[in-house]
């Protein structure tokens, strides 16, 4: 299992219609085949400057690759993510086993 997460801050004013529209568009990524446990998250801590997060899981590398290369994902990145996200940090995890 791979857990794909991204923390980000938008260029839009907090609570604006543009912010809501972006988040709604981001939630559409959950419809891509192979996406599991999708969550759109709002940051509550003041420990960093990010305001939102996305988290999702994939069964394996193949499912993650399918998502990464899917036309809906690549279009979202080019048309929404790149122009509207101010800053982000992406983390991808697998379960650690000793």
Characterize the largest beta sheet: strand count, sense, and whether it forms a barrel: 4 strands, antiparallel
In the residues, how many domains can be counted?
1
Specify the structural class.
Answer: alpha+beta
Mean pLDDT: 96
Unreliable segments of 5+ consecutive residues: none
Order of strands across the widest beta sheet? 2-3-1-4
The portion of residues assigned to helices is 25-40%
How far from one another are the termini? Answer: 16 Å
Shape: globular
Secondary-structure element pattern, one letter each: EHEEHHE
- Beta-strand residue fraction: 25-35%
Number of helices: 3
Explained architecture:
The protein has 98 residues and is of the alpha+beta class. It has one domain: Alpha-Beta Plaits. The protein contains 3 helices and 4 strands, in the order βαββααβ. A 4-stranded antiparallel β-sheet has the order 2-3-1-4. The relative contact order is 0.31.
What keywords describe this structure?
98 residues; alpha+beta; four-stranded antiparallel β-sheet; 4 strands; 34% strand
Please give the structural blueprint:
Elements: E1 2-10, H1 17-27, E2 36-42, E3 52-58, H2 61-69, H3 71-84, E4 85-94
Antiparallel strand pairs: 1-3, 1-4, 2-3
Short structural summary:
The protein has 98 residues and is of the alpha+beta class. It is built from 3 helices and 4 strands; from the N terminus they run βαββααβ. It has helices spanning 17-27, 61-69, 71-84, and strands spanning 2-10, 36-42, 52-58, 85-94.
């Amino acid at each position: 299992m791979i857990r794909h997460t991204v923390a980000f801050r938008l260029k839009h004013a907090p609570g604006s219609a543009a912010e809501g529209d972006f988040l709604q568009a981001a939630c559409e990524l959950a419809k891509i085949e192979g996406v599991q446990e999708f969550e759109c998250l709002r940051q509550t801590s003041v420990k960093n400057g990010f305001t939102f997060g996305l988290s999702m899981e994939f069964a394996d590398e193949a499912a993650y690759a399918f998502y990464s290369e899917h036309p809906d994902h690549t279009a979202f990145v080019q048309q929404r993510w790149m122009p509207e996200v101010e800053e982000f940090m992406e983390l991808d995890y697998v379960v650690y086993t000793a």
